[in-house]
Design brief:
single chain, mainly beta, 32-stranded mixed sheet, 9% helix
Length: 832
């Protein structure tokens, strides 16, 4: 029920019900005003009942039927209005029949809200039936703008034409009038014309800029000195120092930040802006190809931006020089241009080239899930160039500092490191599955491709994370020295020199392994190739080449599967006796190392020191095929040496050992296979072919269990066997071969005949061609008849009378002579 023909909202509406623009009809306005006057007159003639709340109105029923009253000031806005009494005095109720009949209501904006969310107060409640007159305390800075009256719901301010007000459309001190319409406050007056004009000019300027290839500043300095139209929410720069220098990027408008980060800046008008999207470190002030400018702080700032915002840092092919470290926080991501983005140390810089955040505090910790440990980072396709030696390697430039230092659970690092002081790349993170229950971040997602060349100490030290993917590591010239010094013996590593014989190896896996595609270490003149100090490694290839002091060494609780292990042209420098491949591992949980193909090859090595090829002093080694070739007399040594006192559960299932000649490091003639024990070693199984070796098989001691199967092709002066013959039943030997065409072996079958017509004792001495004198317990003689029965009194007596290193003597006596010689045959089997 309403007292009005039309509400003020309908009378003054800018659009009709169909949404078409309309003008205010003067006659309708006159009717609405007359009705307001009648309501006021009726109210005052009835005594003018006024209540401050609906509750107080409902409590007063002592008025007659059709009495009228107003409620003004109820905190519930809809309770305010004109009410009519229904029922006699003392009974009935009050019914709301109309809004309060004020033609307009004054509202005050004192700045209690914000420029874009106005809080206004009125002395009487607002309604859709009254015009609201309101001052504006301060200009709006965004759109849309809302207004809330007396703490009520926020109403969106709309212009007379139904649009949101423009940015700056409400100016400080202006007066607006409007009507509450649903969830909006519709202005009868419009925005300030000056604001409209300013906005039009701003749009015109923006349109002009768009016509001139967009709103793009040439440089960062141009941006910082600009007054940018408020309507623009993003701008671009064409470069940092100059257009096209790689520093161009987008900036978006933001509120005032706290704290201010390197990617946030102000324009001259005081507005704040923030870098947005994938960018280059040049956008943070790096200067490509400027050798006297330290770009490291800008690169670090870019990495911080990447970590905070999730964007990728992309660098073009160039040289970026550093005089301070580059630090990568957790979740930073950066990629270069296919290794043609160079990060070059300035001549005086003596610190690390690259490090993950908090590395210096984390290294050595056993907690992979400490709060400071980076979960992940990415730094791919860069080449780090150190300042260790000058370009022609005639002098040292800087001997203090380090290469890459990484401590992270998930490592993505594909880079090249060259001419670096200290260790080329130190990568570390202990194992562990994280808190219980398991949390995201289990360390099995790393991806590494690394080339380290010409480093002061180790090329790569790997201390975790475990069980991660490492595509390949290529390393060269660890323990590097200037050309004049490079042949001056070993270089003692400050990290491992005290435990590895005072040398510097190329790649060290220290207690933690990885899932590796290929690892190749070569040309290390101050040490060996690969030092595997425990942990599990599964690899397609482990290769050591042309290293002066050993090739590959395995120790500690090493385990894993290696498809191919290759050591060639290593060791022997200056008479060094370090074996080419040393296996001293102890395995882990009764599981050790399995190698598909193990190849040790010296070729035409110029290093003539005697040293063993494959030296086994540890447990749990299984080799499918072993290929050992020691090359010549000048590079003497035992091809395969097994110390059975410390090495058990050793299996070599096939392969070849060749050219083990000359005097081995222990003073003995070089042997293809040398098994040694002083106690009760056991569980060695070796099956190989042997070619051109001084001794095919050497035995020292008598283990409880072993299986030796050797087939040899030897030359004059060489021998199939040397040392202690087997004495235990658990020793199974099958050693055989030719020496300059003459056969010998560890077991033999012989057949011979006697004259059955003689009753005198007959003696036959048989050359056995065994590798040593057989024991009596391993000689079996059996009479074989030729078809003519020898029975009864004709049965002979025969036995082995003697044996030595050359012959076996068999004695035979016929008890009763036969009439005709039946030439009875005796078959004899003998083993060493």
């Amino acid at each position: 029920m309403s007292l009005f023909t039309k509400t003020a909202n309908d009378v003054f509406a800018p659009y009709d019900s169909a949404g078409s623009p309309r003008e205010v009809v003067n006659q309708e306005a006159q009717v609405w005003g007359t009705e307001v006057e009648r309501v006021i007159n009726a109210f005052t003639s009835d005594g003018g009942l006024i209540y401050t709340s609906k509750a107080s109105l409902d409590a007063d029923l002592a008025h007659g039927d059709h009495a009228s009253a107003w409620v003004i000031g109820d905190p519930v806005a809809v309770n305010n209005g004109v009410y009519m009494k229904v029922g006699g005095s003392g009974a009935g109720s009050w019914t709301r029949v109309a809004d309060l009949p004020f033609s307009f209501i004054v509202a005050s904006d004192t700045g209690a809200g914000t420029p874009n969310a106005i809080q206004a107060t009125t002395s009487i409640p607002v309604s859709g039936s009254a015009l609201v007159w309101m001052n504006v305390f301060e200009a709006n800075t965004a759109s849309p703008v809302t207004v809330a009256f007396n703490g009520g719901a926020a109403l969106t301010i709309k212009t007379n034409s139904g649009n949101d007000v423009a940015v700056g459309g409400l100016t400080a001190g202006m007066i607006v009038m409007g009507i509450v319409s649903g969830s909006t406050f519709r202005l009868v007056s419009d925005q300030a014309s000056a604001a409209i004009i300013a906005q039009a000019e701003a749009y015109a300027n923006a349109a002009a800029a768009a016509a001139n290839a967009g709103f793009v500043f040439d440089t960062e300095a141009d941006f910082e000195s600009a007054n940018i139209p408020l309507v623009l929410q993003f701008v671009e720069t064409a470069g940092y120092y100059a257009p096209g220098d790689g520093g161009g990027h987008m900036k978006v408008r933001i509120g005032a930040p706290s704290p201010v980060e390197p990617w946030q800046k102000q324009s001259a008008d005081g507005a704040w802006w923030e870098v947005s999207g994938d960018v280059s470190a040049v956008a943070f002030g790096a200067r490509p190809n400027m050798s006297l400018f330290d770009s490291a702080p800008a690169i670090t700032a870019a990495l911080r931006y990447s970590a905070a915002k999730g964007y990728l840092i992309r660098e073009a092919a160039c040289s970026l020089y550093q005089g301070s470290p580059i630090t990568a926080p957790n979740k930073a991501r950066c990629i270069g241009a296919n290794y043609e983005t160079y990060i070059v140390k300035m001549p005086t810089y003596a610190g690390p080239a690259f490090r993950t955040e908090y590395f210096e505090f984390l290294t050595g910790t056993t907690n992979a899930f400490a709060p400071e440990v980076p979960e992940t980072f990415q730094f791919d396709y860069f080449t780090f160039v150190g300042n260790y030696q000058n370009s022609d390697r005639t002098a040292y430039v800087q001997t203090a500092g380090q290469g890459a230092q990484i401590f992270s659970r998930k490592v993505r690092f594909k880079s090249r490191i060259f001419n670096m002081q200290g260790v080329g790349a130190w990568i570390e993170c202990p194992g562990g599955n994280g808190p219980t229950p398991l949390q995201p971040g289990f360390s099995r997602e790393a991806d590494i491709e690394l080339y380290a060349h010409q480093t002061q100490y180790e090329g790569v030290i790997w201390k975790g994370p475990p069980d991660v993917k490492c595509s390949w590591i290529l390393q060269a010239d660890a323990g590097s020295r200037i050309v004049a010094d490079e042949l001056n013996g070993k270089v003692s590593s400050p990290t491992y020199g005290a435990v590895n014989g005072g040398k510097c190896d190329g790649i060290v896996f220290d207690g933690i392994g990885a899932e590796v595609g290929e690892i190749h270490a070569f040309g290390n003149y101050g040490g060996g190739g690969i030092d595997w100090r425990g942990g599990r490694i599964n690899a397609g290839l482990l290769m050591a080449e042309s290293c002066h002091f050993g090739g590959i060494s395995v120790s500690g609780s090493a385990s894993g599967m290696i498809s191919k292990l290759d050591v060639h042209r290593t060791g022997g420098f200056g008479g060094d006796t370090t074996a080419d491949f040393i296996y001293a591992g102890t395995g882990s949980n009764n599981y050790g190392v399995e190698i598909g193909l193990c190849s040790v090859y010296r070729g035409s090595s110029a290093h003539t020191g005697a040293r063993n090829g494959l030296e086994i002093t540890g447990d749990f080694l299984d080799i499918g095929v072993a290929k050992v070739d020691l090359g010549s007399t000048a590079t003497a040594g035992h091809g395969i040496f097994v110390d059975n006192d410390s090495a058990q559960w050793i299996t070599i299932r096939g392969g070849e050992v060749a050219r083990c000649k000359g005097t081995a490091p222990d003073g003995l003639a070089s042997s293809a296979v040398y098994r040694k024990t002083t106690g009760n070693g056991s569980n060695v199984r070796i099956e190989v072919n042997v070619r051109d070796c001084d001794v095919a098989f050497r035995s020292a001691g008598t283990p409880r269990l072993e299986d030796i199967d050797i087939q040899a092709f030897l030359n004059t002066g060489q021998t199939l066997f040397a040392g202690d013959v087997r004495t235990n039943n658990g020793q199974r030997w099958d050693i055989r071969g030719t020496i300059n065409g003459a056969w010998k072996g560890s077991k033999v079958d012989l057949a011979f005949t006697f004259d059955s017509t003689l009753t005198t004792e007959q003696t036959v001495t048989l050359p056995h061609n065994l590798i040593a004198a057989p024991s009596f317990g391993r000689i079996t003689a059996t009479l074989v008849d030729d078809g003519s029965a020898l029975s009864g009194a004709n049965t002979p007596i025969f036995f082995v009378g003697d044996r030595d290193a050359t012959n076996i003597t068999v004695k035979y006596k016929q008890a009763v002579a036969t009439g005709a010689n039946t030439t009875p045959r005796v078959w004899l089997h003998a083993e060493v």
